[in-house]
Amino acid sequence: MVVEDDAALASTITDGLVDLGYDAVAATRSADALALVRDTSFDAVVTDLRMPGTDGIEVLALSKRLVPERPVIVMTAFGAVDTAVESLRRGAYHYLLKPFKVAELDLFLKRALDDRAVRREARTLKKAFGDRYGGNVLVAQSEAMREVRELALRVADADVPVLLTGETGTGKGLLARVIHAESTRAAGPFVSVNCAALPENLLESELFGHVKGAFTGATSNRQGLFVEADGGTLFLDEVGDMVPALQAKLLHVLEQRVVRAVGASRDREIDVRIVAATHRDLRERAKEGLFREDLVYRLEGVAIEIPPLRTRRDDIPLLVDRFLEGAKAANPKSPVERLAAEAMNAVLGHGWPGNVRELEHAVSRAVLLGRDVEARLGDLPPAVGAKRMARAEVDFGDAIVPVREISRRYAAWVLERVGGRKTIACEKLGIDAKTLNKWLADDDRD
Questions:
Q1: CATH for 2-119, among 3.40.430.10, 3.40.640.10, 3.30.830.10, 3.40.50.2300?
Q2: Which 3-state string (H, E, C) describes 306-370?
Q3: What's the pTM value of the predicted model, to 2 decimals?
Q4: How far apart are CA 49 and CA 63, in angstroms?
Q5: SS3 state of residue 277
Q6: How do residues 40-53 score in pLDDT, each as one tens digit?
Q7: pLDDT above 60 for 114
Q8: How many Å apart are CA 236 and CA 191, to the nearest integer?
Q9: Running DSSP on this structure, what letter comes out for residue 80?
């Protein structure tokens, strides 16, 4: 839509835009302009600033109020530049000084419409990501997981690194995505890399990128995952397995917020939020010389420990329901709707050394193999029904047991009493995390 009180100029502009492929309409009177601006089908507005009756600022304000994302380009004479600058402060996309060529207007219209398309796509992706990974995706019936979810949501908008710890399969990757989805960076990219899955030279190139010819096989430039994650979040899974040489480069990125590709001579500024995860004790690895202590401090902007599934059995029924829903969607021909009582009892009693990931696989197997509305015990993995997890007990009766078993049972009992929160368990027992993990090491090992 073109708003211009000079009929001849309005005709010239609209005719030129039509020749370039636009569907352009002109309004030369204030009443017509205000009526057309209310039509939300227009993709862009081009308006003169100074007009009798309604001026361009009023047209801009009305358009922004009705369709905030619709770009508005203002036209003005040289003597009204100050007003044009004011229009930019109020949301105009750009201003053009008269006289100008229609080709110049075409250039800025294309840029404005492209920007709007990108913003729409980003908003759509953000909504889709948020729908899938918003805070409600975390099952948190147990007190321990409620605390984890609350802490994750509190730090989501804080622009500090987050370190997620916990046993393999507890859901660290899911929590990282929740933190991103709930942050102000949600419209930006979420990029994930497993630091234990790639050899050193490939991981370096994957993270930092490389220039053509930097090494054998580098036939083209590669920007790297830090650059891909610019404006968003980079998730470093199993960061505890990163080799010391790459730890030094990671520390430099965190401190300077710049990255240098392999073989490059210049740094590149980046804006990336780091979320890292590990099942290892980084402080213990630092004592052993396997991990940089200064990097531990950098990664631990906020540390969140995810408790193992065996210490938060209140979450198991809800997790089963969620995994049943997902497995049914993947196998719509399966008749399974729920677990039979015997199967559910076995699930509740199992130790789940593989944590949530193991439970998900077990439920998927039951849905795949089940032939009735209720999945039976035999439809679950054999290990689930083979041994019930013994509740931690401290009353041994007349039995004589090894000291190691006493330590294991007592540690498990304390951990259960504090809702799976290892930090509190260590405080209650007066031991460090390494000792607690050692005491618990034999729990459900077979």
A1: 3.40.50.2300
A2: CCCHHHCHHHHHHHHHHHHHHHHHHCCCCCCCEECHHHHHHHHHCCCCCHHHHHHHHHHHHHHHC
A3: 0.64
A4: 14
A5: strand
A6: 889 999 998 888 87
A7: yes
A8: 9
A9: G
